[in-house]
Amino acid sequence: MNQLQMDFNLLTVEILMATLGLVVLVLGLLIPKNQSRGIAYFTTIGLVAILLYSVTMQWTKAEFLNGMYLIDPFSTLFKQIFLLTAILVSVGSYQFMEKYGHNQAEYYSLMVFATLGMMVMASAGDLITLYIGLELMTISLCVLTCFRLRDAKSSEAGIKYIILGAMSSAIMLYGLSLVYGMTRTTVIAEIAAAIALDGVSPLLLLGLVFLVAGFAFKISAVPFHIWAPDIYEGAPTPVTAFLAVASKAAGFAAMMRVLLIALPDLFVHWNVMIVGLTVLTVVLANLVAIPQTNIKRLLAFSGVGQAGYLLLGIVAFTQLGVGAVLFHTLFYVFANVAAFMVVIAFYNETGSDEIRDYTGLAVRSPLLAAVLLFSMLSMAGIPPLAGFVSKFYLFTAVIDQGYVWLALISVLMSMVSVYYYLIVAKVMYIGKPADDAKPIKVSSGLQIALILCLVMIFAFGIYPAPFTDLAMNVANTFFTP
Description:
Distance between the termini: 27 Å
Helix content: over 70%
Shape: globular
Order of helices and strands: HHHEEHHHHHHHHHHHHHHHHHH
């Protein structure tokens, strides 16, 4: 009995998340609509409390239900990444939801349940558990994407996300079923042993192809990125930020768990596919971002390009590569969410997402202009910002494995990204605002969140040692039985 209780204690973070989501939903029925803003604060405080509790489990390594669910430093760090993103997006949603005016409980509850789905994906030690987490995340995000019922773009984005999400889930499910059929187990740790015993079959390789394609959809890698620009543009901006960071991180967590732990004997086969996806993603995403005139579409293609850089760590298949992925993902939370919070604040004031309307933003709101500038420069890999350090580790990881040409392509595309980021900077700092343009008001809560993100972007770049040590130590435990 004590052992059973101790086992369920391993699921405390997930249980708290499920409880928070249900409580927020019930509060929406009890609290008058004119006091519903308190739900947003309650959700944020709850997420912060769960994040602080998760720190106590940082180095816990245990199994639940005979390996079907894994609690280890790798999954715990990703859970903290999801929680950080949810907290920042929750703060960034205050003004948006106040302007929207209703259904706040449903909005924040769905955000919590989507985060719970991501946590399940990160800890999944079993293919069935992985798929359940994937569907919980996807269904919640589908509803959030079309949350603005009277907005045509939001409805269109929701429909596209449902169709393409269902298609990608079907592709992944077919791949999972083939892997199960050839290995006769759904437990990730046992799949590698079964392959080592029985060898590689054509059907197993076919399952691998479907698996990689399914994961590529979830992380929006080229050419499976077709859903990202339209959905990012049409979805409510806070939801776009959540999609661009948290759901992508969840896809990478599950992808690394399956490829590096369950299918290492197929490295020769899946590595070729990952290298191809990396080249296509890094090159096409950065080139297509150049002509974009909508800031959300530009950030969408920027996010696709970032997925390409993260794939470098999987190509390396080393502790350094996995550690670099973890560090890059951690910094990406602050950089990308900060950029989207600026977009949220600007849209709330002007109702526009067009880059040309950002003319003179440095005059109208110096804080918003500075945060957007440094966020984009960090994503481009400019020193002394965080993106430079993370890309340095990613490039070093692939060079160590002999992929010098791949690192050169990635460096070249990083230089291209500087160009389209500076287009936005030029508009903000050189252009003059219209005569009737008013200063943009930023709430105190959003100001604190923006300043925090800006501080973290510089901290990760100037003094990265604590964060890189954490990432590398977690990566080490990921490769240790």
